[in-house]
Task: structure prediction
Amino acid sequence: MAATYRALASVVMLIGFYVVALLQLAAVGALFYWIAGQTNGLAATKLLLPLVVALGAVAVGLWRAIRTRHEPAPGLVLDEREAPQLWATVRELATAVGTRAPDEIRLVPEVNAAVSEQSQMLGLVGGRRTLYVGLPLLQGLRVDQLRSVLAHELGHYSGKHTRLGEVAYRGRLAIGSTIERIKPRNPIGLVFRGYAKLYLLVDNAASRRQELEADRASVQLAGHEAATSALRSLPALDAAWNFYMGQYVHSGWQAGLAPDDLFGGFGQLLQGRRNEIAQLSTEAPDREPSRWDTHPPIGIRIDAMAQLPAGTVTADDRPAGILLADLDGAGRRLQGLVVDHGNRQVLSWPEFTHASIAAAMQRRVDGIYRAAGRFTGTAEPGLTTILDLVRQRRLGEFAEQFFGDATRKEAAVRFAGPMELLLDNAAVRAGRARYQLSWTGPAQFVGADGEPLDLAEIAKLAVDPQTLDEALARLTEMGVDPAGATVVHKRATADNAGVIGAIGNVKIDDVEHDLVILDRGLIMVGGPGKAGDGEERLKGLLESTPVAKLAARHQYLPYEEVVSVSVTKQIPLRAELTLHDGRVVAMKELFGSVLLERRSRDNLLRVFERINED
Result:
């Protein structure tokens, strides 16, 4: 019933969406003739223009929904040779829930499983079925838990949820496409956006009912323990995946590197941090419902499962990965299909880990060296530049910029922290140290002998003029020459930087620019054009050109060159950026400025706060 209700509601509300458009056309058309009769045609035309634009967007949205096919998501199609046990399990479960088995199984890079059906004639005729199985599920679940997940997805087939899902999909696509094409300031768009919200509320409510219906198959075919523990494991696996991508992959990816076995690395992490992930699975599940969610909270689903009858099942605590003939090989093939490495250097995990951390360390070290270059006027600053400041008893004066709340004497002592980083970098560049991969904790900094290396004591000696020579002697014993550690990038670049926002038509020193906000600096693009085209112009700019090239072509201001920021007004933004060379850059947001996304200004303000805190 939930599937029929959802499809019927989608059809009715989709028709209603266009009825609303026609009613607005009739109403404004009548108003047009009345105003034209009272005044002149020019005023009436100005009133009618926003509706014409909005109705054009409606027509485009409908045409796109009719023409677009719901194509399968990218993934690795598994044949029976690669996954004989998985196919046998799926067919067994499909028979048990009384439905036709899927035509293909696709391995996907998500902590999720899903089903789709390319039905015809608005779902009256069934079509090709696809079952999507997330590789992280095969790596992190037991066999009986995965059976529960698969039974749930096949339950969507037996409940005919997918048969009529095309109607809901096309409804969302038509309305979403229409809303995207109506500018925020168009008054007609307010009505359409309100209707779109109502559509989502109705459709999401039906989707939540379908999920509870499909949970019956999970409990019946896998039992209460497997079904509920699988649900509890999903947030833990999702958190582990996010941790893995953030802590193990992201920094290397930003540095132009890629691991040769992305998904195999996640499997290693799951093994290495088994106890931590198990602990996450025991945490109380979310029970707070939201009208905007397509799935009920896990806590509510678990409570509902407790009331369902379970069939006679046998526990199977074997790892779900045994359902594939070669799990590691499948992961590598999946990586080749869904991961675009671009021109990144692909390395084995040990080399990737070392190179990733070393590259991130070099960026931080270069920032300190560039600061030393500004302070001393040295063209090629490096470790010897800073050690010379120690010998000249000027380290405190230089270090003040890093510790705003410290006296010069205190800043010199506290610089032992950054000095340790500089010495670590010098040891790495001399080939006397490296970062060693660990799946159970942070990577270890080890010496040439493979034993942990700690240069904190030498760093403390190196910031004091009286013990500097002793520090240099100990570095020499290690085979580290300070002269070999110099700045790599004389100026901060935007290579592999991330975009955190953009604002169109901002005045920079009284000249209009488009402002692209990166996590490392600001790109100021001159001659932006009309404010009304700002959003589409910014999207086109960022889609057509990598940020590194944008920074090279236009004005680029790295955050490290900014000493402080004075914000006199937040909305519209008024700020002055004081640079290390004494220049002041005035930034003024106009009332006609356009935010690429709503958080753009907030993200920029947070950057300014961090600059002032540092």
Remarks:
- DSSP finds 22 helices and 15 strands in the chain.
- Residues 1-240+256-310 form one domain.
- The radius of gyration is 30 Å.
